[in-house]
Amino acid sequence: MSDYIEGNAIEDANAEINRKLHQAFDGRIVRKDLTKKIKEGANVPVYVLEFLLGQYCSSDDPDVIEAGVNNVKHILAENYVRPDEAQKILSLLRQRGSYTVIDKITVNLNIRYDMYEAEFSNLGLKNIPISEEYPAKYDRLLCGGIWCIVQLDYETENEFAPEILSASGDYIQSKKKRQKNITPISIRKLTPIQMPHVDIDELKQGRKAFTEEEWIKVLLRSIGMEPDKFNDRERWLLLARMLPLVENNFNLCELGPRSTGKSHIYKEISPNSILVSGGQTTVANLFYNMGRKTVGLVGLWDCVAFDEVAGIHFKDKDGIQIMKDYMASGSFARGKEEKAASASMVFVGNINQSVDVLLKTSSLFDPFPPEMGTDTAFLDRIHCYIPGWEIPKFRPEHFTDDYGFITDYLAEFIRELRKEQHGDELDKYFRLGKNLNQRDTIAVRKMTDGFIKLLYPNGEYTKEQLEEILKISLEMRRRVKEQLKKLGGMEFYDVNFSYIDLDTFEERYVSVPEQGSGKLIPEGICNPGQVYTVSQGKSGMIGVFRLESQMLPGNGKFERTGIGSDSKSKEAANTAFNYLKANASRISGSISTTIKDYIINYQDLQGIGMTEKLALPTLIALCSIALNKP
């Protein structure tokens, strides 16, 4: 009975969302089950389908929808060009004299003849004259190409090359004289399958009608997911996948099991992102071609995603170095000049072992190729690590049958939002803890900015809602930092991320679920060499201090980090080491203070000033790491 009542409540809530969508975004929404049905039989990008469905099926009337779906199916069957049917389409074009096709069009400027020429991806046509008004109006035609509906004409009798139709319908005489090898095909009309313009104010105004939960559902349904089949945590992780699309120069990594849709959003949902399959690429392709003097993918797309990170390979030796430079600064140097771009970088791949095993044996970056997965400088530039293992494997019920934004509209308003900045909004209510260095702070601010733009494009949110965003942002960055600590040792000791509420001055710590709780002293047994001590700090307050130790081959040196210039604390630590040197054999015969070096990092977890009472905890930490026992 309770399930029945709950089901009715969900249905009522969804009906209310649909009512609001029709009211605020009429003509911008589509029923996603229609996309799903046709998508299964047509190999076209989702945004192509939804453009057509938005034209023919924007109604609640089942008869109108059915007629519209049949119309779309007919258009796709007749006009979508399959590469293996290209010659058949060309034959029909010749017979009929005109034909409408759906294909991906790229436009190039032929300088020799001073005219623009179109290239058809599936149809296999090149050097087709096109009016200069189209590339001027739709500049993406010149930058990698976009899907279009194109009306083609076939003319064989004129002495001159085909007359070009301008966008206004006037004929323009081509400067090419008719030759045997000149094409008789011309473009009568071209319509990009993208939103020509997005009114961002309309979006902000429309957002006011929805609650946070409703808006999250709308966004997830717009990318094809059914939010009612995911819990809150999973919804947030799915939203995090959209951050590279809404944020400039954002570096994201997601590793997890297969069939969790890691690359789906970058391949199908947004026409502004590109998925580099297989991982093989060159510096010229990705960044800058010095021969042609052209910018690569990072200058043409909003987001460049690498599928299967294990296979990432640059044919150039300096590829990863240039990528590191770009990921840190958003620019790169090639030849004599420096180029800037705003594309986000996404790395997705599969984890073949369980997370528990990876955490014990290596790091969560293990699937990366060795030159990247062990390079802490490269990994430190990743702003966000989504735990892909927490997202369930997709089944049919995970895909929505309800209303969501047309993919084009979603992609375009997300693109518009890239121009806005809200990263400093958290300063109104919170301050980041002292364990966050500059890169950590930038990463957290970028994520906060992205989530605010996605969830609250109108800029209206509460302190509690901002805190929720801040928590998940800190967690996503801390996951990167925890792995860096494993790989880089003491250099990345400061992983205890926290934030301070400016109203109460209470400091709250944020942990990563796979590595224990958010308490100052985690539950369970610590690692060898790790000691927590409670003592009186420099300020006179009682606080918690953490000691982390490392033992390396050497000649008996003892190094302390994190103490600063406090002479009494240094003296206490030295006393402990001197005691160990004098009494090592009495403690254990396996402890060596002559062929090993010891490093201890001291952390004041609550910012009350370093304690002077470090002798005993230091001795325990040294013995623990020397014996490799917790």
Q: Could you characterize the architecture of this molecule?
A:
The protein is of the alpha/beta class. Helix content is 38%, strand content 21%. Helix 3 packs across helix 4 and helix 21 packs across helix 22 (615-627). The two termini are 52 Å apart. Mean pLDDT is 83; it is low at 175-180. Residues 24-154 form the BREX system Lon protease-like BrxL N-terminal domain.
Biggest beta sheet summary: 5 strands, antiparallel
The helical percent reads 25-40%
Beta strands, count: 27
Portion of residues in beta strands equals: 15-25%
Q: What class, by secondary structure content? A: alpha/beta
Strand order of the largest sheet: 4-3-2-5-8
Gyration radius from CA atoms, angstroms: 30 Å
Number of helical segments with 4 or more residues: 22
GO molecular function: peptidase activity
InterPro entries: BrxL, BrxL-like, BrxL_N
Protein name: Protease Lon-related BREX system protein BrxL
Domain BREX system Lon protease-like BrxL N-terminal: 24-154
Properties at a glance:
protease; five-stranded parallel sheet; 630 residues; peptidase activity; single chain; alpha/beta
Topology at a glance:
Blueprint: H1 2-24, E1 29-31, H2 32-39, H3 46-56, H4 62-79, H5 86-96, E2 98-110, E3 115-120, E4 128-130, H6 133-137, E5 146-154, E6 164-165, E7 171-172, E8 185-192, H7 200-207, H8 212-222, H9 232-240, H10 243-246, E9 251-256, H11 264-269, E10 273-276, E11 280-281, H12 283-286, E12 288-289, E13 294-295, H13 297-300, E14 303-306, E15 313-314, H14 319-329, E16 331-334, E17 337-340, E18 344-350, H15 355-361, H16 370-373, H17 376-379, E19 384-387, E20 403-405, H18 407-417, E21 430-432, H19 438-455, H20 463-488, E22 498-501, E23 507-509, E24 530-536, E25 542-553, E26 558-561, H21 567-587, E27 596-604, H22 615-627
Parallel strand pairs: 9-18, 9-19, 10-14, 11-15, 14-18, 26-27
Antiparallel strand pairs: 1-20, 2-3, 2-5, 3-4, 5-8, 6-7, 12-13, 16-17, 21-22, 22-23, 24-25, 25-27
Helix pairs in contact: 2-3, 3-4, 19-20, 21-22
